[in-house]
Amino acid sequence: MTYTCILVETVGDGPRKTGLIRLNRPKALNALCDPLMDELGEALAAFDADAGIGCIVLTGSEKAFCAGADIPSIKDLDFLSAHQGGLVSKNWEHVLKVKKPVLAAVAGYALGGGCELAMMCDTIYAAESAKFGQPEIKIGVIPGAGGTQRLPRWVGKAKAMDLLLTARMMDAQEALQAGLVARVFPTEGFLDEVLKVAELLNAQSAPALALMKEMVNQAFETPLTQGVQAERLAFHAMFGTHDQREGMTAFLEKRAPQWKHG
Ligand code: CO8
């Protein structure tokens, strides 16, 4: 498929590579419009289905990961056209359906829907230049893709309220302290650092990676006892894989495991 709003490539030297997706609407600071979200969904699904891909990195440009929803394309909607037209609901769930790890690599602005998109990924790495915020209040609305729900889960209620109600931006170091991002890297060479992290993931067993991310994400959806039970079942399921046997045997034989990813 030819893409107009994103750039897609595979990166890496190992047997399994990284699927790299760059949001690419530079004139609108990568604002999210329907064509972009449709293309993103296609690209994510294609990488997810490709056995040669270990994980996916989603990034933007140096200036902006993404400045949020494309304001011109939603400005004139009314309630019915927003609701019946499936604004957000029709093409925002793709990233949540991906079984492989999806890493958000954020440099520059991650605002509104951009911050929400990053929070839909499995974890976020930030450049020193990153700025996170939910500025919807300044344009007379509230977040519509999880900002009021995921942000408190990531950073706690007090900071989420502060960010949402004031529309202020949070820099990378504050985001790190708040737990929104996993690590901060220097802006120079930032993407290479994230791609190094991705290489580490690519070298792991695919079923273990997939179940790991599913279980962690489930922790935010279920009560503790239920989550621990689900984890135990998933752990037991791992003993039905070749890679469990190979991983444990390789450890005891003091050699690198040869995964079959099954
Ligand atoms: N949509 C469309 N175009 C945008 C957007 C946007 N969100 N943000 C910036 N642009 C455009 C500007 O209009 C400008 O275009 P032009 O050069 O043609 O005038 C260009 O990008 C560069 O922007 P600025 O000149 O403003 O650049 P600055 O460096 O001065 O400022 C900012 C950068 C701070 C990022 C500023 O552009 C800004 O505040 N942008 C708006 C941020 C915002 O309010 N985001 C929230 C939008 S609402 C939302 O995301 C709700 C999500 C709900 C779910 C999604 C449903 C689809």
TrEMBL record:
Q: According to the UniProt record, what class of enzyme is this? A: lyase
Q: Which family, according to UniProt?
A: Belongs to the enoyl-CoA hydratase/isomerase family.
Q: Which SUPFAM superfamilies match?
A: ClpP/crotonase (SSF52096)
Q: What is its EC number?
A: 4.2.1.17
The record's Gene Ontology biological-process terms are: fatty acid beta-oxidation
Organism superkingdom: Bacteria
Q: What is the lineage of its organism?
A: Bacteria, Pseudomonadati, Pseudomonadota, Betaproteobacteria, Burkholderiales
Q: Does the keyword Lyase apply?
A: yes
**Which named protein is this?**
Enoyl-CoA hydratase
In terms of InterPro entries, this protein maps to: ClpP/crotonase-like_dom_sf, Enoyl-CoA_hydra/iso, Enoyl-CoA_hydra_C
One example GO MF annotation: enoyl-CoA hydratase activity
Keyword annotations for this protein?
A: Lyase
